[in-house]
Specification:
Number of strands: 12
Bound molecules: adenosine monophosphate, magnesium ion
Strand content: 5-15%
Largest sheet: 6 strands, antiparallel
Radius of gyration: 24 Å
Order of helices and strands: HEEHHEEEEEEHEEHHHEEHHHHHHHHH
Structural class: alpha+beta
Helix content: 25-40%
Number of helices: 16
Number of domains: 3
Length: 534
């Protein structure tokens, strides 16, 4: 696309299909309340003191055809910070419910997210522009409707990182500092602090969640449920045909399939969402609501970044596939009357199971550069590797990325095979003991398998490098960017945006970001554990 095709933000044309198509809350009072019978409430963002644009995603701006606005204060920062509503925008907060940590939580809704409107991007795809942290809505319950800078930087960077990793996700266009203070008790220990506030403008074809359907089913709002289902199918799954019983079943199957592929990708790159409540599950199969997420550094199936989940570990890395299935069963429950055929819904859930199994198996084969044998792992190569990676702290990203350098010849020594992997070990001395022996045995079996498969090295290595990112948004790296941004220095955000646009490329000039978590980051807040306080 040429630069001349870029439009200034102020000239965007809005076409607000969601508000046109669904039941509006007749009330206009912006106070927390139950909103029976409605899919959304009209509500304007609350102006902030001094909105200033801190960061902008050029790739997303290009997709939307929007010219990059100047950083700092200005008319675009006012819009993206929630202080000004442009003609054509019809801001609203959506009503949804959800199961939180396994329990039905009733009405939740957009408590701090406000959609400004919908536009068509340069490919003709509909995109919703939504501010997160834009102030109170009828769904804010006891909270303030705001977001702090640290969580906004995390959502902004991770959305874009995930997209460039090839993982279905909502996107993020801009990060605006509001100039207002936001009070948060980050550790829930009775020591609230004032932190800088921020607003992210996030972008997706739709932000509808499983929970939008659950609330209608729970409250017996059958017309709203059907209207929303028909709308999602017509506008976001048009390939399935006109809504009707068979189409609803096919739709649930496709949601299940997409969800399975998404979670398999999370597992592939070591992403842990952290709060897989049903209100945080996208009906389009997108990664949504970046809160206390984290990236596996040392490989541990039981790891969760979310301190609220430290006891139960419901949402830890290794549980994500089961939890997505459980969430889909909740969605199936909500759609049950509509579909009218529980066997069809069960078939959809089975599609999830099979798709996840096949996708994860294929992705693991790609990560290892071996032929996929259908997931049964009959010789235990993968099970044994996972066991080994957990026995001593081993950096997931470095381990897998470095596997391409392991010499595979029948005669090479164990020491030669382990050498390229040494950087992955937090305590390299562990390799001198029994663990080194077990690792050497595994590597010998691995090398034999690769030789047996007989794939040409060039193709195999390209396949591995496309499955094993070199750069992910390590928790401590994000935290450094946050610390700098808190002092007004956004250069690290810029650098990360740039590096994470090409996460599978070597980029040797950024090799300091391909590194184990430093010792200082072990116990620093934000680097290994995160609270939901955002
Ligand atoms: P989350 O766990 O962040 O997905 O949030 C769960 C629910 O709480 C959603 O309905 C959010 O909109 C709402 N929520 C979270 N934080 C805030 C906040 N600071 N102000 C208002 N509502 C919030
Ligand atoms: Mg949420």
């Amino acid at each position: 696309m040429t630069a001349t095709a870029f439009r200034p933000f102020e000239s965007l044309e809005f076409d607000n299909l969601f508000v046109r198509s669904h039941a509006a809350d007749p009330g206009r009072a912006n106070v927390p309340r139950q909103v029976p019978g409605a899919a959304f409430s009209h509500v304007s963002p609350t102006p902030t003191r001094a909105p200033a644009l801190l960061a902008w995603s050029d790739p997303l701006g290009a997709l939307l055809g929007i010219a990059r606005p100047p950083l700092g204060e200005g008319p675009v920062a006012e819009v993206l910070g929630g202080s000004r509503v442009l003609p054509g925008m019809q801001p609203y907060a959506a009503r949804y419910g959800g199961h939180q940590f396994g329990q039905w939580a009733g009405q939740l809704g957009d408590g701090r997210a406000i959609t400004l409107g919908e536009i068509l991007d340069t490919t003709g795809q509909r995109q919703e522009l939504q501010l997160k942290g834009a102030g109170r809505t009828p769904y804010s319950r006891h909270a303030d409707g705001r977001a702090v800078l640290r969580s906004s930087v995390r959502e902004f960077l991770c959305s874009e990182a995930m997209h460039h990793l090839g993982i279905p996700t909502t996107r993020a266009l801009s990060l605006v500092a509001t100039g207002d203070g936001v009070v948060r008790d980050m550790f829930y220990d009775g020591n609230p602090q004032t932190e800088p506030g921020a607003v992210v403008c996030r972008v997706a074809p739709s932000f509808v969640r499983f929970g939008n359907f659950e609330i209608f089913a729970a409250e017996n709002e059958a017309t709203n449920l059907r209207t929303l289902a028909d709308w999602v199918i017509r506008h976001h799954y048009p390939e399935l045909g006109e809504p009707g019983p068979a189409t609803y079943a096919a739709w649930f199957k496709e949601i299940s399939r997409r969800t399975a592929v998404m979670v398999a990708h999370w597992m592939r790159v070591g992403f842990v969402h952290g709060v897989m409540n049903t209100d945080n599950m996208s009906i389009l199969g997108l990664t949504i609501d970046y809160g206390p997420y984290g990236w596996l550094e040392d490989f541990d199936l039981g790891w969760t970044p979310n301190t609220t989940d430290a006891q139960g570990r419901r949402y830890c890395y290794g549980q994500q596939a089961q939890i997505a299935y459980w969430n889909l069963t909740r969605l199936a429950g909500a759609l049950s009357e509509l579909v009218g055929d529980d066997d069809a819904l069960r078939a959809g859930l089975e599609t999830y199971r099979v798709t996840f199994g096949d996708s994860w198996s294929q992705m693991l084969a790609d990560k290892l550069g071996i032929t996929d044998r259908g997931g049964d792992d009959e010789d235990g190569l993968i099970t044994d590797l996972f066991g080994l990676l957990q026995q001593t702290e081993t950096d997931m990203t470095i381990f897998f990325r470095s596997l391409t350098a392991v010499p595979l010849g029948a005669g090479v020594s164990a020491a030669e095979q382990i050498a390229p992997l040494r950087d992955a070990f937090y305590d390299p001395a562990a390799l001198d003991g029994p663990h080194g022996g077990a690792m050497a045995d595994w590597l010998a079996r691995y090398a034999a398998r690769v030789r047996e498969d007989g794939d040409a090295a060039a193709g195999r290595i390209a396949r591995m490098n496309a499955a094993n990112p070199k750069y992910v948004l390590r928790n401590w790296i994000a935290q450094q960017a946050i610390d700098a941004a808190s002092t007004g220095d956004t250069s690290q955000i810029e650098r990360l945006l740039d590096v994470l646009r090409k996460p599978y490329d070597e980029q040797p000039e950024h090799a300091d970001l391909f590194a184990r978590r430093p010792d200082w980051a072990r116990s620093k807040p934000g680097c290994s554990a995160l609270s939901c306080s955002s």
